[in-house]
Amino acid sequence: MSAGASIVPYEGARAQIVVANSRFVSSLEPVASVAEARDFVGRVKKEFPDATHNVSAFVIGGGNTTTESCSDDGEPAGTSGRPLLAALKGSGMGDLAVVVTRYFGGTLLGTGGLVKAYSEAGKAVLALARRASLVELGRLELELPYRLFDRFRILAGEAGADILEQRFEEDVRLAVEVPLAGRAAFESRVVELCSGAVEPRLVSTRVSRRPIYG
After folding, report:
1. Domain 133-211 classified CATH 3.30.70.240?
2. What secondary structure does DSSP assign to the chain, as a single string?
């Protein structure tokens, strides 16, 4: 995941619209780097090798750390890539790429028609994309007396922590994953539960997409 973006697509999506007999197939993919975005564009072009155009745009990051790009792929300059990029930026999401594949239907759309068509094609797939928030997670490890295990599971659930591993040896050896924003409060409750005898150890961190519901 790239730095800066907070709302991103949870997964890929595809939509289709028809304008004056031209077919526009919009493909969306979550991406975390320029290299991933370009790879996605290449894969879509291979999927639709007989298309008239494969117009693309991507936004990596968000806020003050945004990298963006677009391509008209042979359409008149400014009529396709830029409107598509504007649709992406207007979605409020980062870390995404969209390719709009056009099959020409025999009717010229004109400059204004092209701008509208590519904008609408982009918005169509954006409307289908499930959204997710980027959450930074920390993996914590600890050993716990058996008598505290059930109470710890309740505590972990209340803190939004996931138990990744549990090994029942002399003590219960645990690996849990907790949002870093709530790490300090979680560790404080664990220390309190164990009367100061146990302190979780942070061993790694990662960034994860979590779907937004509603």
Report:
1. yes
2. --SS--EEESS-EEEEEEETTEEEEEEEEE-SSHHHHHHHHHHHHHHSTT-SEEEEEEEES-TTS-EEEEE-TTSPTTSSHHHHHHHHHHTT--SEEEEEEEE--S---HHHHHHHHHHHHHHHHHHHPPEEEEEEEEEEEEEE-GGGHHHHHHHHHHTT-EEEEEEESSSEEEEEEEEGGGHHHHHHHHHHHTTTS---EEEEEEEEEEEPP-
